[in-house]
Amino acid sequence: MSGYYPERSIYTNAGINILFEEYEALRLADYEGLKHDEAAIKMNISRPTFARIYESVRKKIAMAFVESRPIHFEVGSAFFSGVNKDMNQFNFSNQQINNMKKILAIPSENGVLSNHFGHASEFAFVECEGTEVKSVKMQVPPPHEPGILPKWVAEQGGNVVIAGGMGHKAIDIFQRHGVDVVTGAESLPVEELARQFVEGTLTGSGNKCDH
Question: Which overall architecture, per CATH, does domain 100-199 show?
Fold first, then answer.
């Protein structure tokens, strides 16, 4: 298995969706008892990427318990190579996964990721399919007000936001609108960030916003 590509959030009215890659991270770390660097090697992903997956699934499970929500399992956006018995168990196929479409929303200034997420002059909506970047469309966001951007991004079809940093409240609002969030990205051209995302090489220095 290689690459972690958050596809969409995870919350539904009926329950909370656990993606296959999140299940695998939890299984390796909490059930098998592997250290995070060891588990990352098993999943063929970077240590920071493993940490993001693990943190995500732990939060979802906690929410399921606290809010008494059922848990559902979905394919997610991982890419698998070869035959995998766990994939067969869930009746997932490589073709299903490799054909998944993603629309990345990236706040930008002059085609480069903006570190000022809420005040970016434009958003790049990058359509990706499998490991291919298909198209880039620039959109001017609405005036910055609390809670407006997550709804707007979802209305444009975005299901993943890539940002340098974002407050925890904003992340929660995005997730509740069905949009996953990747933080810690560097200020690179939007097409380069999209390419790194679909190839599973996108790395960063953690969330650059702590509020």
Answer: 2-Layer Sandwich (3.30)
Could you report the per-residue pLDDT of 172-190, keeping only the tens digit for each?
Answer: 888 788 788 888 888 999 9
Please name the helix (run of DSSP H) or strand (run of DSSP E) that holds residue 126, with its range, or none. Answer: strand 122-129
pLDDT by residue (tens digit) across 39-76?
988 887 888 888 888 988 999 899 888 888 888 776 55
Q: CA–CA separation, 69 vs 94, rounded Å? A: 29
The phi and psi torsions of 25 (rounded to 5 degrees) equal -65, -45
At residue 75, the pLDDT reads 55
Determine the 3-state secondary structure of 18 from DSSP.
strand
Q: How many CB atoms lie within 10 A of CB 41?
A: 15
Q: Do the first three CATH levels of 16-97 and 100-199 match, i.e. the same topology?
A: no
What fold, for 16-97?
Arc Repressor Mutant, subunit A (1.10.10)
